[in-house]
Design brief:
By secondary structure, the protein is of the alpha+beta class. It has three helices and eight strands, in the order ββββαββββαα. It has one domain: Nucleoside Triphosphate Pyrophosphohydrolase, CATH 3.90.79.10.
Length: 159
């Protein structure tokens, strides 16, 4: 039996200069320049939860602030499958991967509003602003295709 996809939202958070927020996974602290160690904020959607509310909630949970406004919603759900060695283990062992609704957001706060230290078990241990075009090279292999798509489809917001 094939496992289902987990519903998920993702945030491409742009600052005033058109750069995006990327964060380093806390479980990969030595991945300073390595592909896969850096990613965009994303997370699961609760049953019945509004997707726009979910992306702002995920921002607050993962980076400590929801000071952002949604400027675009990707028109499609984008899916990825976990590698075979992670299926049945990652994502609680319940899912084959994720189906994701991505949003472009404009950051309305200051860098001081980004607080990775508010969660007692943070997903990320570092963050930085990066060019959208850098995003695909940062992605773990099984998410790279989605990041290539986001870099193309949200390019207008990077200008």
């Amino acid at each position: 039996m094939k496992l289902p996809y987990r519903p998920n939202v993702g945030a491409v958070l742009f600052n005033a200069e058109g750069l995006i927020l990327v964060a380093r996974r806390a479980d990969m602290p030595n991945a300073e320049g390595a592909a896969g160690g850096w990613q965009l904020p994303q997370g699961g959607v609760d049953p019945g939860e509004d997707l726009r509310a979910a992306v702002l909630r995920e921002l607050e949970e993962e980076i400590g602030t929801a000071k952002a406004e949604i400027i675009a919603e990707h028109p499609e759900w984008l899916n990825y499958d976990l590698p075979a060695e992670l299926q049945g283990k990652a994502l609680g062992g319940k899912y084959r991967g994720q189906t994701q609704k991505w949003f472009a957001l404009r950051f309305t706060g200051t860098d001081a509003d980004i607080r990775l230290d508010l969660d007692p078990h943070p997903e990320f241990d570092a963050w930085r602003w990066a060019r959208l075009s850098e995003l695909p090279a940062m992605a773990v292999a099984f998410k790279r295709e989605i990041y290539v798509r986001l870099a193309a489809d949200f390019a207008a917001f990077a200008r």
